[in-house]
């Protein structure tokens, strides 16, 4: 498959009053056309920062190094004008807080039509029709009435889908969705799965999904990357990872799901300010050995479809 996005040695840190926060450390990731890749891990592991780094959607105190090649061109080196041509058009980002992303003073329809207009050279009537089509794809049974409503007349999940319609309006080649199932019930979650699938199948769009929800990730993703304390600790084919997890962190994450007995993973992620020089999961790992106290593991290739950062397999 053709490579769409190549992330190479990506590091993102923030200068803060308490020190340097290393949110993303040396991440390498390839995204291919039509691929649906899930980025999972506990809160504060750097998932959203990784997603936002791809479009340089970060505050001024952020410093991003490495390479992010999109269609062969480094996003980190693009001019403001080049970046504007990519954002929202070729790569769309659906953020975690739909309530903040929609303008409360404008009707949903006006906002969706505006984003369709920016992305496609269409007449007003065609923009309206495209907007209605998009809302249909997103599972709204009465798209016209949604167009006439204001954002705060909708539930959180509906706002998220309106935002998704806006993100998809440019028919991007990559969609980054941050927690698209947050606050949704099982039925709505299934709708999101169907929508994203249909969208990738009909448009060839690749999707990077950032989520806490392992069940959702396993239902939709073909590839998974597990993040822990700013690093990718395990990555590969979804089935290989979930059927045969190798990293003790992923094993623990799977066991902590409600359907697997809710065995809560004790402890918390180490501070991203004073990172340990040994294995970052050492303190919480039930398999930790002497060597883990002294060494920082590299990402090891078990086979083409499976990589893991754990000294158990060295
Ligand atoms: N502007 C900022 N300045 C300083 N630190 C920041 C800034 N933005 C994010 N961080 C820190 O970067 C780390 C990674 O945050 P991030 O939002 O990527 O986590 P996450 O994995 O997406 O978590 P969640 O699942 O809760 O969304 C956190 O420790 C966070 O506090
Ligand atoms: Ni996040």
Automatic annotation (TrEMBL):
Signal sequence extent: none
Top-rank lineage group of the source organism: Archaea
Query: Where do the ABC transporter domain residues begin and end?
Result: 5-254
Q: Subunit notes for this chain?
A: The complex is composed of two ATP-binding proteins (NikD and NikE), two transmembrane proteins (NikB and NikC) and a solute-binding protein (NikA).
Record-linked Gene3D superfamilies:
P-loop containing nucleotide triphosphate hydrolases
Nucleotide-binding keyword on record: yes
GO MF annotations, alphabetized: ABC-type nickel transporter activity; ATP binding; ATP hydrolysis activity
Instruction: Give the record's GO CC terms.
Output: plasma membrane
Protein's GO biological process? peptide transport
EC number(s) per UniProt? 7.2.2.11
| Swiss-Prot/TrEMBL catalytic activity | Ni(2+)(out) + ATP + H2O = Ni(2+)(in) + ADP + phosphate + H(+)
Main localization, broad class: membrane
The broad enzyme category this protein falls into is translocase
Per UniProt, what is one Pfam family of this protein? ABC_tran
The listed locations are: Cell membrane
> By what name is this protein known?
Nickel import system ATP-binding protein NikD
What is this organism's lineage?
A: Archaea, Methanobacteriati, Methanobacteriota, Stenosarchaea group, Methanomicrobia
Looking at the UniProt entry, the stretches that span the membrane are: none
Keyword vocabulary terms for this entry: ATP-binding, Cell membrane, Ion transport, Membrane, Nucleotide-binding, Translocase, Transport
Q: What is the membrane topology listed in the Swiss-Prot or TrEMBL record? A: Peripheral membrane protein
Q: Which PROSITE patterns match?
A: ABC_TRANSPORTER_2
Record-linked InterPro entries: AAA+_ATPase, ABC_Ni/Peptide_Import, ABC_transporter-like_ATP-bd, Oligopep_ABC_C, P-loop_NTPase
**Cited SUPFAM superfamilies:** P-loop containing nucleoside triphosphate hydrolases
Q: Which SMART domains match?
A: AAA (SM00382)
């Amino acid at each position: 498959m053709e490579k769409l996005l190549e992330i190479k040695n990506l590091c993102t840190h923030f200068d803060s009053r308490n020190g340097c926060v290393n949110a993303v450390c040396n991440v390498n990731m390839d995204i291919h056309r039509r691929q649906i890749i899930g980025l999972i891990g506990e809160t504060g592991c750097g998932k959203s920062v990784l997603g936002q780094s791809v479009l340089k959607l970060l505050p001024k105190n952020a410093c991003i190094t490495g390479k992010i090649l999109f269609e062969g061109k480094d996003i980190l080196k693009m001019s403001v004008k080049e970046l504007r041509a990519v954002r929202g058009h070729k790569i769309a980002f659906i953020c975690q807080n739909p309530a903040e992303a929609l303008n409360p003073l404008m009707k949903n329809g006006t906002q969706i039509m505006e984003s369709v207009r920016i992305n496609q050279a269409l007449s007003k009537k065609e923009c309206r029709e495209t907007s209605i089509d998009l809302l249909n794809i997103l599972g709204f049974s009465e798209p016209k009435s949604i167009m006439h409503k204001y954002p705060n007349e909708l539930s959180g999940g509906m706002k998220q889908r309106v935002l998704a319609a806006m993100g998809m309006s440019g028919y991007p080649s990559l969609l980054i969705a941050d927690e698209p199932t947050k606050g949704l019930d099982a039925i709505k979650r299934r709708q999101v799965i169907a929508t994203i699938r249909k969208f990738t199948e009909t448009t060839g769009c690749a999707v990077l999904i950032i989520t806490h929800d392992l069940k959702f990730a396993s239902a939709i993703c073909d590839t998974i990357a597990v993040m822990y304390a700013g690093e990718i600790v395990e990555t590969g084919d979804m089935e290989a990872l979930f059927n045969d997890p190798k990293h003790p962190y992923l094993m623990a994450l799977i066991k902590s799901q409600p359907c697997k007995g809710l065995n809560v993973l004790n402890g918390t992620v180490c501070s991203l300010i004073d990172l340990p020089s040994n294995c970052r999961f050492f303190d919480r790992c039930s398999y930790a050995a002497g060597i883990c106290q002294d060494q920082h593991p590299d990402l090891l290739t078990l086979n083409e479809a499976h990589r893991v950062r754990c000294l158990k397999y060295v």
